[in-house]
Amino acid sequence: MGLAHDLLRQAEHLIGYEVPAPSQASLRRAVSTGYYALFHLLLEDAGSHWTGAAETRRAIERAFHHGSMKSVSLQFANTTWKDWHGQKRVIPPDVRRVARAFVELQDEQQSADYDNHRVWTDTEVKNLLAAVGRAFRDWDAIRTDPMAGNYLLAMLLQKLR
Amino acid sequence: MTGTIPTQEQIDRVALELAPDVVRIRMEEDRDWTDDPALYFRVVLSDEASRRKPLGDVTMPIREILRSRLGLDELEPHSYFRFRALRELAYTNDAGWD
Questions:
Q1: Which of B46, B55, B64, B75 would you mutate first to test chain A, the one with the most A CBs within 10 A?
Q2: What percent of chain B has a predicted confidence (pLDDT) above 70?
């Protein structure tokens, strides 16, 4: 279990320990932590493909940026993606669901962290964490598929394309 | 991307199909935090449906049905789905969910 799974468990803890009325602070932190769980899941997986020095692996993980991850996720939320040779490729549903969840969670994380006027409810947050949990399961099922690798690589190379 | 933005009438028909778990669904065209076009769906669940565990067994199928019935994958704006229980509307007092 890496950081990503720890963060998901922490997010679930945050909405459960003040039952029946979680505070706004806990609900907001749960959304933000849920997003970072998914963020780190993708980083950890990208880093795990590197078999060289640990220092280089850490550099790969640090090369991911929230903005480019979102724009690439918007591309991979679609049914097809134009590959490295300009050919249209079908994106497997599991990859699309992960990409959609990433876009959604990042938007909600921004709101949870910076929009002080929004009131959060237990149901809203549980739904978002359900989306993160589903994305974890989808990623586990698809992570060895070549298109999952393309998704991660596109995030890393976004600024170069 | 070839689809058209769904009307409230189309959304109401899907909501009716999803009753009694779904009380109503509202949609708003907006921009997300990076200024990309977005559709925000606000789904009001019955109190009974909102208490089922895990909640994802209720909300995930609703998302998929909305996607397929409304052709959301054919649209440029990304779709966001927010869920609240009917009882939660009393204290959130948010017109976007009415």
A1: B55
A2: 98
